[in-house]
Specification:
10 helices, alpha/beta, 310 residues, binds pyridoxal-5'-phosphate, 10 strands, globular, 17% strand, four-stranded parallel beta sheet, single chain
């Protein structure tokens, strides 16, 4: 009786995640205070911001049985990877709805999901495009009674709670922050930080895909669920750094990642963290900040997504 069963064993997490001071060789960098918030170190598998976003949702489910979670993502998705691992750990049934057909050539991410006992369903791109339509959701619900649907990227309104934790850590660790750079894809991370109370003055979201207007509307949509109905931190999204679109990684960006990984002793990948840090360099070098200001890059994890197909 005294031994906790597997499903209730806590996942070992490094929280608060560390803050690392950096001194890159950028113009203007030496008169600013530059830091990286290392959410990539929270857990080796559960990618940083995905942990922040999923934790409140999983906690809500953990008192109930049986649990069946369904969610959506691409073949390399950090979100599906994190969620599959967490569901296996908690003894939840998990169905991953994947965009595209990888049956003949499973990605490393999908192999892991399979190993962790997830069910994988491949959707055509046209089917996947319907994932938020009411008709599609309703038929999915009737085929899977009692299942919990989590949106793509884990950007459910609950993720606002998880981001408040991150804002609190930052305040405790380094006090007031003048600007925080965050990659933006499904918007939950940026929306949660905008809603959070804290001492960050400005959030700069870096669009990692071509989505002017679309990304703004995702963030605004999530913010309507914010119980306080106000944005505590002003935010903007810059659309100048997607480098051609989602998962597009031109040579220039790859070189930037390699160079900075080495110089800063920081793992970087070109899909999220590379683009966000690239943007931060541009802002710093252009003289956007005044001397002495404290500027932070949020490393959201995601290194697993770059594993090559075998
Ligand atoms: C999902 C993801 C993002 C994007 O966060 P959103 O909340 O979806 O905007 C950023 N970085 C990494 C590593 C991710 O996996």
């Amino acid at each position: 009786m005294s031994e906790a069963d597997d499903s209730t064993k806590a996942i070992a997490l490094q929280l608060p995640s560390p803050v690392q001071a950096i001194s890159p060789q950028w113009r203007n960098a030496n008169c600013l205070q530059l830091f990286v918030k290392r959410d990539d170190l929270i857990h080796p598998i559960v990618s940083g911001n995905k942990w922040r976003k999923l934790a409140p949702q999983l906690a809500r489910l953990s008192g109930t049985r049986p649990v069946h979670v369904i969610s959506f993502g691409g073949g390399f998705s950090n979100h599906l990877h994190s969620l599959s691992f967490c569901c296996a750990h908690n003894g939840f049934r998990f169905t991953a709805m994947v965009r595209g057909d990888y049956r003949r050539n499973l990605t490393p991410m999908l192999r892991d999901c399979e190993r962790w006992g997830s069910e994988i369903r491949f959707l055509t791109k046209a089917e996947y495009a319907r994932r938020t339509e009411e008709g599609f959701i309703n038929s999915l619900k009737s085929q899977n009674p009692g299942a919990t649907l989590i949106p793509e990227g884990g950007s459910h309104p609950d993720c606002l709670t998880g981001m408040q934790m991150l804002a609190d850590e930052l305040t405790q660790q380094i006090g007031q922050v003048d600007a925080l750079f965050v990659p933006v894809a499904s918007g939950g991370t940026l929306a949660g930080l905008a809603a959070a109370r804290g001492q960050t003055k400005q959030l700069i979201g870096v669009a990692v895909l071509k989505g002017q207007q679309y990304l703004e509307s995702l963030v605004e949509g999530l913010l309507t669920h914010n119980p306080r109905k106000t944005v505590n931190t002003s935010y903007r999204i810059t659309h100048d750094f997607h480098h051609g679109g989602y998962a597009k990684a031109p040579h220039l960006l790859k070189c930037f990642c390699d160079e900075h990984s080495e110089q800063l002793n920081l793992p970087l990948e070109p899909i999220y963290s590379g683009k966000a840090l690239f943007a931060m360099r541009q802002f710093v070098e252009s003289g956007y900040f005044t001397p002495g200001q404290k500027v932070v890059f949020l490393h959201t994890g995601g290194i697993q997504g770059t594993r090559p197909l075998v």
